[in-house]
TrEMBL record:
One of its GO terms (cellular component) is plasma membrane. InterPro entries: Aldolase_TIM, Alpha-hydoxy_acid_DH_FMN, FMN-dep_DH, FMN_HAD, FMN_hydac_DH_AS. It comes from the Bacteria. This is L-lactate dehydrogenase (Cytochrome). CDD domains: alpha_hydroxyacid_oxid_FMN. PROSITE patterns: FMN_HYDROXY_ACID_DH_1 (PS00557), FMN_HYDROXY_ACID_DH_2 (PS51349). GO terms for molecular function: FMN binding; oxidoreductase activity, acting on CH-OH group of donors. Keywords: Flavoprotein, FMN, Oxidoreductase. Signal peptide: none annotated.
């Protein structure tokens, strides 16, 4: 059993274990991957203030996210195709999150269906919605999430059309993988992944196949998704969805203060400052760099969450210090899941909790609610030497 000391350890095992197609799907950003890289590297620019001679006993990381008690300010982000990273991946990740006391968010594009996850868990999980053109299908999805006991709807706003990720095109990404000579050669080296996958019936998009009109197999699915994401999604439609859903609503994919103000007007319970893990608008600033400006704009009126680039408990602490109530991890939990299933997700959460707890203590704080900008040192100009050019109009 390898000794896991950090998220990189899980990443290394994950890389060896999972087929290239799915590893690449996770480990990419769009186009040049600048935003993907900077989500991580911008965290490194923020430093922490060491404080001493503070009583560190009785520390607490507990907080709430949209009213729900969480054991630390971290949730699992919605990640499509999680069930291809490990057989029954969404179920395993949801169970690990439940045991740990943090929320799990199920993607619309999951392999295990809403009902699969509900059957295998007790705690309500959150459902992430991609808005599709087919309103009947969207209503049906929302109804299924409600019937499954989901109490929070996370509406993703930054993927009306897809940012191109070169590797997915080159690899011919599909679920399940199409058997080309290249994939067969690669799958032959991923024996345990393949055996586990053969042991589960869940190998297609569980929320879609058999539920959306005209989608009965995966070959019709790729054309369906390309046609179905709704490019007309606007604030009017978001308002209608807000009114339709009786529980909490989180708007995900906000990266601009103006959009944050709009989200506030929609009556959302929280926003997620996010650029989709650098997978959509390449060239956008990192989430952590945009966070302070958004906190300044709406932080006293709405709960602010953030994601993008979090690979350690120190990153979580920095995000909380700069004004996020809580964070989400995407790739960090996928590395754990792909490496060793449910146990790996638990490892990822434990690594992050331990790092967060120790770092908070060494910064002289013992309650996560007391963590603020005073624990950080931020380089001059961190918020950006960028300006909005004066408009010609
Ligand atoms: C492989 C992968 C698939 C994703 N699929 C979805 C998705 O289906 N829905 C969604 O709202 N966000 C999706 N995201 C974005 C994540 O929810 C989250 O915003 C991002 O992963 C955060 O960045 P991090 O991976 O650096 O933690 C995906 C991210 C990755 C890496």
């Amino acid at each position: 059993m390898p000794v896991i000391t950090n998220i990189d350890d899980l990443h290394a095992i994950y890389r060896r274990r999972v087929p290239k197609m799915f590893y690449d799907y996770c480990q990419s950003g769009s186009w040049t991957e600048q935003t993907f890289r900077e989500n991580e590297t911008d965290f490194d620019k923020i430093r922490l203030r060491q404080r001493v001679a503070v009583d560190m006993e009785g520390r607490s990381l507990k907080t709430t996210m949209v009213g729900r008690e969480v054991s630390m300010p971290v949730a699992l982000a919605p990640v499509g195709l999680t069930g291809m990273q490990h057989a029954d991946g969404e179920i395993l990740a949801a169970q690990a999150a439940e045991d740990f006391g943090v929320p799990f968010t199920l993607s619309t594009m999951s392999i295990c269906s809403i009902e699969d996850v509900a059957r295998k868990t007790q705690a309500p999980f959150w459902f992430q919605l991609y808005v599709m053109r087919d309103e009947e299908f969207v209503d049906n999805l929302i109804g299924r999430a409600e019937a499954a006991g989901c109490d929070t709807l996370v509406i993703t706003l930054d993927l009306q059309i897809l940012g191109q990720r070169h590797k997915d095109l080159k690899n011919g990404l599909s679920a399940p993988p199409k058997l080309t000579p290249a994939t067969i050669a690669n799958l032959a080296t991923k024996v345990s992944w393949g055996l586990e996958m053969m042991g589960t019936p869940r190998r297609q998009f569980g929320n879609i196949v058999g539920h959306a009109k005209g989608v009965t197999d995966t070959s019709s699915l790729s054309s369906w998704t390309a046609e179905q994401f709704d490019p007309r999604l606007d604030w009017g439609k978001i308002r209608k969805l807000r009114d339709k859903w009786k529980g909490k609503v989180i708007l995900k994919g906000i990266l601009d203060p103006e959009d944050a103000r709009q989200a506030l007007e929609m009556g959302a319970d929280a926003i997620v400052v996010s650029n989709h893990g650098g997978r959509q608008l390449d060239g956008a600033l990192s989430s952590i760099r945009m966070l302070p400006e958004i906190v300044e704009a709406v932080g006293d009126k709405i709960e602010i969450h953030m994601d993008g680039g979090i690979r350690s408990g120190q990153d979580v602490l920095k995000a909380v210090a700069l004004g996020a109530r809580a964070t989400y991890i995407g790739r960090a939990f996928i590395y754990g899941l792909g490496a060793m299933g449910k146990k790996g997700v638990t490892h990822a959460l434990e690594v992050i909790r331990k790092e967060l707890d120790t770092t908070m203590a060494l910064c002289g704080e013992k309650d996560i609610h007391d963590v603020g900008p005073h624990v950080t040192l931020v380089p001059k100009g961190f918020r950006g030497e960028w300006e909005r050019p004066a408009s010609n109009s």
